Amino acid sequence: MTSILIATVVLAVAGIVVGAALVYIGNKFHVEVDERETAIREVLPGNNCGACGYAGCDAVAAAIVAGEASAAACPVGGAAVAEKINGIMGTNAEAAARQVAFVKCNGSCEHTEARSNYTGIKDCRAMALSGLNHWKCGFGCLGFGSCVSVCPQNAITVKDGVAVVDAEKCVGCGLCVKECPKGLIELIPYGQIRAVQCVNSDKGKDVKEVCDVGCIGCKLCTKQCETGAITVENSIAKIDYSLCNDCGACAAKCPRKTIRKGPGQD
């Protein structure tokens, strides 16, 4: 009986000692958390997707409070979340133009042809790593939807062999941009009237042989542009959206109809 009592006392004393030690250590290494960081974390979507460039919502909240990231750092939350964060931080709202994903390829089944019957893994990255391409155009969309699988808003579908973005659903998180092994997706301003839907840098003659709507680098678009917003680099027309006034003259003159409606114009 005595031994049981002694054991009980020892355990009780040990528990008190350990508890006291934990309290001491907790106080010793306690780190004050800015209440603004907690408030910002509560208004963030909570996707922890990493689209902001940070490890997750906790990390970007801390970065915003530290002044290392802007109130508009979360692309998923968009303007609505940025406004709330500005309210928490007591800063002025940032006028950041909404951006959405745009697929720079229109080489659907209607405009190009398959050159092989691919039976491998239905994944764009897997196919890119294999070095294979079942379409005649080696620059175009592979059509297996790796971008679809990473889109948190279900804004991307594959139609006739090409990824298509629903601009109304897209929040511009950029995950699809990172996922595409062909580098076909970019973020451009929502409401942009025209965008170049091709990345094939081959010479015009070669492009014509593989796709009906590929850019042939003819430079007719550059001659129509009064603001100098369009240039041709590596046989591909490129638009500087900061200079573009959305006149649409380039698209009207393009013989291949490669300059097409931008996001939000359908």
Question: Would you give an account of this structure?
Answer:
This protein has 266 residues and is α+β, with helices and mostly antiparallel strands. The chain has two domains: 35-89, Electron transport complex subunit B, putative Fe-S cluster (3-methyladenine DNA Glycosylase II, Chain A, domain 3); 99-261, Alpha-Beta Plaits. It has helices at residues 2-28, 35-43, 57-65, 78-89, 124-130, 146-150, 175-179, 204-210, 220-224, 249-253; strands at 99-103, 156-159, 162-165, 185-189, 194-196, 230-233, 236-239, 259-261. The chain has a two-stranded antiparallel sheet with strand order 1-4. Strands 2-3 form a two-stranded antiparallel sheet. A two-stranded antiparallel sheet has the order 5-8. A hairpin with a 2-residue loop joins strand 2 and strand 3 (162-165). Helix 2 crosses helix 3 and helix 2 runs antiparallel to helix 4 (78-89). The longest helix is centred in the first third of the chain and has 27 residues, at 2-28. The radius of gyration is 27 Å and the shape is elongated. It starts with a helix and ends in a 5-residue tail after the last strand. The model has no long low-confidence stretch (mean pLDDT 84).
